[in-house]
């Protein structure tokens, strides 16, 4: 009887140790990443700048859609102008230096597309044109997101 108790205790302790080990030390290192994007390294302040610009892109796209829903071209012009040609001029030279060429090209293409949305809504608003331009714009976002990710240099 005593022997049986000892054996079951030993089994219990062993099981607890195995489960504890699995819980604490396995899992994370078993995840394989399929992330093959190229890392672009920016200083923290540049990364913050780029990411807040990205969030504004999304806001502008949302305002353009809202303008279309309300049949309000002025709202579209105002929103899209914010990320149009004028914002290229505000790009710091440091950012351009650290960005790969293809990344810069897609960045500029995006601002041109925002500007085109603003211009055509101003001159002769046509929801079909705006929809096509938005498709071209978001295609540019998607293409860049597939290729690049951003990291800090420290
Ligand atoms: C030149 C390349 C490029 C273009 C063009 C681009 N992005 Fe990004 N975007 C990135 C990168 C790189 C990240 C960071 C991804 C990462 O590190 O995982 C990012 C991140 C973001 C984020 C997350 C921001 C945060 O705070 O973390 C949003 C939102 C975003 N992009 C929206 C957009 C939208 C909308 C467009 C198109 C109008 C767009 N982006 C166009 C490269 C681009």
Protein described:
The chain contains seven helices and two strands, in the order H-E-H-H-H-H-H-H-E. It is mostly helical and about 150 residues long. It folds into two domains: about 1-30; about 35-150, Four Helix Bundle (Hemerythrin (Met), subunit A). A two-stranded parallel ribbon has the order 1-2. It binds heme C. Heme C binds near residues 55, 57, 140 and 148. Heme C binds near residues 54, 103, 107, 137 and 145.
The first-level CATH class name of the largest domain: Mainly Alpha
Helix/strand/pairing category: mainly alpha
Helix content: over 70%
CATH topology of the largest domain: Four Helix Bundle (Hemerythrin (Met), subunit A)
Count up the domains: 2
Query: How many strands in all?
Result: 2
Distance, first to last CA? 64 Å
Q: Write down the secondary-structure element order.
A: HEHHHHHHE
Q: Measured on Cα atoms, how large is the radius of gyration?
A: 26 Å
CATH architectural designation of the largest domain: Up-down Bundle
Helix tally equals 7
Q: What do the pLDDT scores average to?
A: 93
Name the descriptors:
154 residues, 2 domains, mainly alpha, binds heme C, 6% strand, 2 strands, Four Helix Bundle (Hemerythrin (Met), subunit A), 7 helices
How is this fold's topology laid out?
Layout: H1 2-25, E1 38-42, H2 44-69, H3 73-82, H4 85-89, H5 93-98, H6 101-124, H7 127-147, E2 148-152
Parallel strand pairs: 1-2
Helix pairs in contact: 2-3, 3-6, 6-7
The structure holds heme C (HEC).
């Amino acid at each position: 009887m005593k022997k049986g108790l000892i054996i079951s205790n030993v089994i219990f302790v062993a099981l607890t140790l195995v489960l504890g080990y699995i819980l604490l030390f396995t899992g994370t290192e078993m995840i394989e990443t399929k992330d093959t994007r190229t890392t672009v390294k920016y200083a923290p302040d540049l990364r913050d700048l780029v990411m807040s610009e990205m969030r504004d892109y999304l806001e502008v796209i949302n305002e353009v859609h809202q303008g279309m829903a309300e049949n309000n071209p002025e709202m579209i012009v105002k929103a899209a102008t914010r990320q149009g040609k004028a914002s290229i001029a505000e790009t710091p030279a440091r950012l351009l230096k650290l960005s790969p060429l293809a990344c810069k090209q897609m960045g500029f293409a995006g601002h041109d597309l925002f500007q085109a949305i603003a211009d055509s809504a101003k001159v002769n608003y046509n929801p079909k044109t705006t929809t096509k331009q938005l498709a071209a714009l978001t295609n540019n976002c998607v293409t860049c997101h597939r290729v690049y990710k951003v990291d800090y240099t420290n």
